[in-house]
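Budget justification aside, the reviewers requested a transparent look at the raw inputs and outputs of the sequence design task funded under Objective 1. We therefore reproduce one unedited record. The lines immediately below are the structure tokens for a 329-residue chain.
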């Protein structure tokens, strides 16, 4: 088994000023742990990395297709989007299709995560609503599943609702863990979210990678939507969009809050999961790129856009470069 150091350091001049400890697990096509960094079994909350699995029951029971939805809606259901006009328009369209509106979403309101989305909202003096939430596509999809199934839409966010029970069962199936072994909490967008050992999370993404390469309908459709519509998965300046575009869809990546990231590489049958111990997002992107380089999913010589993500300059108030953020040498 390979061992990696993925820790990310912040330098000021030639001095290491701060260090972020990074844990990771790399799982191969047969479910074996191929590599690790730090504690590969650390208990990890999935956060938004769960989104491709949260939409699976909606596809599997045919109710997604009953609405005549396609790649746009599916990509947005998996997205941590930037709140740009294109994202908002699709979320609003999804709600209209089932006769519901923004107020039916259980997620709260926050500023668009994309710099472009925030700028356009300010310039147009747009009143921000729940559809600007980066999880609005996922919530709209869950409301749609409840609507088509004839379940109550009110309370769809509760862990006792059939929509959420099916999600937990799905994640249990893909991790190979009993449902009662998954720890439950509440995500930032008010939905139930699971936690499990990091290597089991990577194992779920490895199984997703293998199933996608094999052509299994549900995972293959999810992977296709995410790689065919990378802008919808993130946005203009969002890391997952950049990574999917720069790898031409060979890496299916999903960001999570608190320094969590996961990815599936279908052509290799590999799944990876990564957790920055202190939750710092500034460390997770360099660490993920370096891990993808270690396993051969990215070359040593990176494209300009990815090179900009792996090492970032630290600037002072006069805009002079005084240090950097990047992987340990």
């Amino acid at each position: 088994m390979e061992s990696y150091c993925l820790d990310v350091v912040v330098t000021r001049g030639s001095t290491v000023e701060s260090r972020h400890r990074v844990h990771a697990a790399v799982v191969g096509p047969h479910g074996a742990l191929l590599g690790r960094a730090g504690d590969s079994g650390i208990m990890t909350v999935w956060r938004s990395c769960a989104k491709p699995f949260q939409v699976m029951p909606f596809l599997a029971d045919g109710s997604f297709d009953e609405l005549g939805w396609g790649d746009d809606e599916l990509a947005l259901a998996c997205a941590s989007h930037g709140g740009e006009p294109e994202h908002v328009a699709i979320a609003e369209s999804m709600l209209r299709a089932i006769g519901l509106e923004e107020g039916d979403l259980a997620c709260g309101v926050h500023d668009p995560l994309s710099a472009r989305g925030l700028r356009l909202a300010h310039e147009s003096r747009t009143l921000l609503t729940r559809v600007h939430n980066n999880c609005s596509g996922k919530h709209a999809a869950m409301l749609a599943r409840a609507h088509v199934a004839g379940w109550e839409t009110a309370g769809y966010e509760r862990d006792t609702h059939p929509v959420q029970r099916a999600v937990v069962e799905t994640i249990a199936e893909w991790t190979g863990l009993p449902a009662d072994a998954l720890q439950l909490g509440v995500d930032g967008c008010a939905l139930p979210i699971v936690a499990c050992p990091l290597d089991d999370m990577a194992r779920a993404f490895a199984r997703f990678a293998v199933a996608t390469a094999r052509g299994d309908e549900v995972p293959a459709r999810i992977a296709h939507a995410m790689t065919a519509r990378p802008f919808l998965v993130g946005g203009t300046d969002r890391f997952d969009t950049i990574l999917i575009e720069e790898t031409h869809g060979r890496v299916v990546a999903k960001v999570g809050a608190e320094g969590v990231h996961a990815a599936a590489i279908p052509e290799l049958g590999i799944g990876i999961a990564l957790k920055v111990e202190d939750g710092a997002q500034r460390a997770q992107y360099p660490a993920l790129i370096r891990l993808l380089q270690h396993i051969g999913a990215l070359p040593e010589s990176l494209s300009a856009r990815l090179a900009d993500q792996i090492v970032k300059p630290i600037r002072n108030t006069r805009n002079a470069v005084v240090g950097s953020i990047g992987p340990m040498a």
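The two ends are 21 Å apart (CA to CA). The chain has one domain: 2-327. Computational costs for records of this kind are itemized in the attached budget.
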